[in-house]
Every structure is written in C-alpha cells, then in structure tokens.
Amino acid sequence: FSAIQTWDAMLFACAAIQKAKGVSGAIGGALRSIRSFEGLAGTIAIDEYGDAKRTLYFKRVSGNRIITEGKVQ
User: Fold this and answer.
1) pTM, whole model, 2 decimals?
2) DSSP state at residue 4
3) Helix, strand, or coil here: 43?
4) How far is 16 from 30, CA to CA, in rounded Å?
5) What is the per-residue burial (b if ≥16 Cβ within 10 Å, else e) of 52-65?
6) Cα distance between residue 71 and residue 29, in whole Å
7) pLDDT tens across 49-67, in order?
8) What is the distance between the alpha carbons of residues 1 and 49, in angstroms, rounded to a whole number?
9) Rounded to whole angstroms, how far apart are CA atoms 57 and 35?
10) 3-state class of 10 per DSSP?
C-alpha cells in the first residue's frame, strides 16, 4: 500500500514539473492547478483543498495472491 502511495505521489510531482515546463518557480502553481491524474490504481481526483480522492478496494491475501473482494461505495 505505501509503495503505491509513494509512486502516485511521484507521478503527481512529475505531472506538475511537466506542466511547469521545468521552471522551478512555477511548480507550486502547477501542483495547485492539477485536478486529476492517472495513478497506478486508476484516476486520482484532487479537490479545491488539495485533498485526493480515489476509488478504494477491499482486498485480502490468500496464499501468495492478493484478491480484490469489491470496492468501497
């Protein structure tokens, strides 16, 4: 779980750097302007307060496999 969160944070930062065209002073504004991006497990929406929202799934480990049981409504 934490590895996926870390990777998604890196994807978010990369999207902002690309949007800012590498200009360091523009990265903060680029971060605030992004409203959604594709993370490892699907689209992540960012609200006006900077909070991230995504679909959450119930999963369980069985043997050596992770099984998705359903999603949180």
Assistant:
1) 0.72
2) H
3) strand
4) 5
5) eeeeeeeeeeeeee
6) 33
7) 989 998 888 889 999 998 9
8) 24
9) 22
10) helix
